[in-house]
Amino acid sequence: MSAEISSKKKQRIQDAIVIALLALVALSTLYPILFMLLSSLKGKIEYMKNPFSLPASVSLSNYILLFKQYGVMQAIINSFFTTIVSITFTGFFGALAAFPLAKLNFKGREAVFTFITAFMMVPVAVLMIPTYVMFSNLGMINSYLSIIIFWFVIDLPYGIYMMTANFRSIPTEIIESAKIDGDTLPGIFTRIILPMGKSILVTMIIIYFMWNWNDLLMPMILLNSEKMTTLTVAVATIVGKYFSNLPLLLAGLLINSIPTIAIYLIFQKYIIKGVTVGAIK
Amino acid sequence: MEALKTDWLSSRGTAISVIILAVVWTQFGYGMLVYLAGMSSISPSVFEASKIDGANWFQRFVHVILPMLIRTTEFLVILNTIFVFTSLFDYIYTITRGGPGYDTMPINYWIYMKAFRSNEMGFACALALVLFGILLIISLIQRKIVNKADDWGE
């Protein structure tokens, strides 16, 4: 009897230790976000005196400065416009390409699939010079279209790969019976494939949003005027110019991370599925 | 505490450790998720059996869980290797800009510097091709590992 109690007690202590360690890890992950929030409410001098203290009074002066003087509003509009347009196109055309690759039999299907997925391996760093030269020859530097086209092309193979793998699990019998009932291919796509593959489509669009929203390199190269640039680049350029004013920078970083944090909180389930899909077979 | 006060970003050797810390901090959640997904696909009966055989948690971890997660580990190692070659730009640009000297200069930031800051397009293109070659080799290794893993399957 006493042995049982002591083993129960031991189990409880073990659990407590594990939970405490995990809580520590969670805290270390959340702390920088908290630090960002608290510091962005401070003035520059207050921050330099003690970076870790709580703000003496809540002042939104950093945010007001960002919107009034640094044109952050324009950058937010640019970011949302380019990101949303590119993810809409990539999601739609990705699904459109994945449907035949997963469910229709045609000659050379495997070859096309291998060809498309091979482009997943080409890194952006390799492509940035040819892309820049090409767009500058076309006179498209500093236009939304350049970054939208680039993101569309770069994101598409991964989406096709993921969606093809997912669409394959849709039972062929359903498609066959729809064919027998006289449905055409566009009808099958909109009435069967899209509703049944909704979860992977949402997952892909969220992943694309995070990639494109956080992309720093390509918007910096392709949209280099202050009026056209995206929020991530705008904030990063504030770093370069005003490294001494960290609270201002942290306020900008917080604005930049709000959409991704919000999307994470809303679509948590999809994101966890999205990052682990492909990891395990 | 005074002795610990170093300018982490501008001394040689320490700047790269700051970058490493930042990369680990941002990427470790992803690794955790992947391992979690891998672990949840291990059948619970395996844990039960090893418990009955009297293995403690450390033995269970080393002899049961780690060997069963070898595929997940391979996947993560490959993915993180590719990540280091392709995605360090953001960290370098915002934290050190390659300095001090060339201490924290990764290949993709170097390409950017040569092409768009010092206008040496030829040099940058050569670097890009070297990077492409490295990644091609890594992908071939990855493909080999994936194929090998498929052979193990039923």
Keywords, please?
heterodimer, A: 281 residues, mainly alpha, 14 helices, 78% helix, B: 154 residues, MetI-like fold, flat
Give an account of the 3D structure:
- The complex is a heterodimer of chains A (281) and B (154).
- Chain A has 2 domains: 2-40; 61-276, MetI-like fold, CATH 1.10.3720.10.
- Chain A has helices spanning 2-40, 44-49, 61-69, 72-103, 109-118, 124-137, 144-167, 172-180, 185-196, 198-214, 217-222, 231-241, 246-266, 268-276.
- The two termini of chain A are 46 Å apart.
- The radius of gyration of chain A is 25 Å and the shape is flat.
- By secondary structure, chain A is mostly helical.
- Chain B contains 7 helices and no strands.
- Chain B has a single domain, classed as Orthogonal Bundle (MetI-like fold), CATH 1.10.3720.
- Chain B has helices spanning 14-40, 44-52, 57-68, 70-86, 89-95, 107-117, 121-152.
- In chain B, helix 4 (70-86) runs antiparallel to helix 7 and helix 6 packs antiparallel against helix 7 (121-152).
- The A-B interface holds A 28-29, 32, 121-126, 128-129, 132, 214, 216-217, 221, 236, 239, 272, 275-276, 279-281 and B 25, 29-30, 33-34, 36-38, 41, 71-72, 75-76, 82, 85-86, 89-90, 93-94, 107-108, 111-112, 115-116, 121, 124-125, 128-129, 131-132, 135-136, 139, 149, 153.
Per CATH, what is the topology of chain B?
Answer: MetI-like fold
Which CATH class of chain B? Answer: Mainly Alpha
Radius of gyration of chain A: 25 Å
Beta percentage of chain B is under 5%
Task: Output the number of helix runs of chain B.
Answer: 7
Largest sheet of chain B: none
| Main sheet makeup of chain A | none
| Total count of helical runs of at least 4 residues of chain A | 14
